[in-house]
Amino acid sequence: MNLTAKIGELELATPVIGASGLFGYGDEYEGLLDYASMGAIITKTITLEARAGNPPPRVVDVGSGIINSIGLENIGLEAFLKDRLPRLDIPCNLFVSIGGAKVDEYRRLAARLDGIASVSAVEVNISCPNVEEGGMAFGSDPESTRKVIKGVKDETGHAVLAKVPPIIWGLEDVCGAAIEAGADALTVANTYPAISIDPESAGPVLGAVTGGLSGGAIKPISLLLVWRAAAAFDIPVVGVGGIERPEDAIEFILAGASAFQVGSAMLKDYKAPSRIVEGIGRYMEKKGYKSLDDFRGKAAG
Ligand SMILES: Cc1cc2nc3c(=O)[nH]c(=O)nc-3n(C[C@H](O)[C@H](O)[C@H](O)COP(=O)(O)O)c2cc1C
């Protein structure tokens, strides 16, 4: 049985990808995670300069999912290149997630990562709801999306994934702009702006007041967005949002996803990726499918 997935020219051993923000800089799960079951791991979003992130509390469990407001805390590009990347030794692809407040920052990040052999692709985060500048503002506007993705493509030979925000109205405009600018794949989608209020204090739970909702609660909506993006465009769509069980991942593939990411599920079970891959294998065996192509997009719109 063939579980390989393709994102443009890139071949992944399996369709499961570690979502940005849940896998640190790539090797944090060493000794716990079966890295060989992963098609790729995506780093925490890296910015040019180190960022301290938002004030605590930064994560709240809301039952059906979690809201986070990390605020892109990261060590910055140069520390990543000097201290983390050289000692990374994982048996799967590494994608680097990049973020910035200005088009030029994305350009400079892409240029610095270009040509590094241990990096297989760049995921452009134009969809973070937890920062004041850039972030979601870029990905909600087709023109800014075009400028950011074009800037990145001009500077790198790596495959480029555009990670879009969960826009219900206008999704196709933003995805279309990313594709025109040269994106090799779409990652659909980031977290959903959300809030949690503490009845006792009558105030917001999170230090940054609002954050991004992820986990089971968002799965059917992200699935809808993936289904729409896959129907509208020919380039690979990487689905993300609430994937916890094999059945969730199968739904995304049936909707047209070429690969999918696992994020918040890691907080409950660090074996989720291999569990999901095994479950997909069982499903394919039961249905008589030989490869993901045999059922990808079967439920496409
Ligand atoms: C704690 C946390 C940190 C995250 N950090 C990032 C990040 O740095 N960059 C990014 O593009 N997405 C980030 N995300 C979003 C995830 O990559 C993913 O798009 C989202 O959580 C939906 O998938 P899930 O429901 O499987 O978690 C983060 C999510 C969580 C929960």
Question: Could you characterize what this model shows?
Answer:
There is one protein chain. The chain is an alpha/beta fold and 301 residues long. It has one domain (5-51, 73-192, 214-294): TIM Barrel (Alpha-Beta Barrel). Helices cover 29% and strands 20% of the residues. It has helices at residues 77-84, 103-113, 136-139, 142-155, 171-180, 219-232, 246-254, 272-287; strands at 5-7, 10-12, 16-18, 40-42, 59-61, 66-68, 93-98, 121-125, 159-164, 185-188, 192-195, 197-198, 203-204, 210-214, 237-240, 259-262. The strands form 4 sheets. The chain has an 8-stranded parallel β-barrel, surrounded by 6 helices. Helix 2 packs parallel to helix 4, helix 4 (142-155) packs parallel to helix 5 and helix 7 packs across helix 8. The two termini are 27 Å apart. The protein binds flavin mononucleotide. Flavin mononucleotide (FMN) is lined by residues 19-22, 44-45, 59, 66, 68, 70, 72, 97, 125, 128, 163, 190-191, 214-215, 218, 240-243, 262-265.
Q: Tell me the helix content.
A: 25-40%
Task: Going across the biggest sheet, name each strand in turn.
Answer: 3-4-7-8-9-10-15-16
- In CATH, the topology is named TIM Barrel
User: Can you tell me the CATH superfamily?
Assistant: Aldolase class I
How far apart lie the N and C ends? 27 Å
**Assembly status:** single chain
What's the mean pLDDT score?
Answer: 95
Tell me the fraction of residues in β-strands, as a range: 15-25%
Structural class: alpha/beta
Order of helices and strands: EEEEEEHEHEHHEHEEEEEHEHEH
Tell me how many strands there are: 16
Q: Which radius of gyration do the C-alpha atoms yield?
A: 18 Å
The largest sheet is: 8 strands, parallel, barrel
Instruction: Supply the CATH class.
Output: Alpha Beta
Count of alpha/pi helices = 8
* CATH architecture classification name: Alpha-Beta Barrel
Number of domains: 1
Outline the low-pLDDT stretches: none
Ligand list: flavin mononucleotide
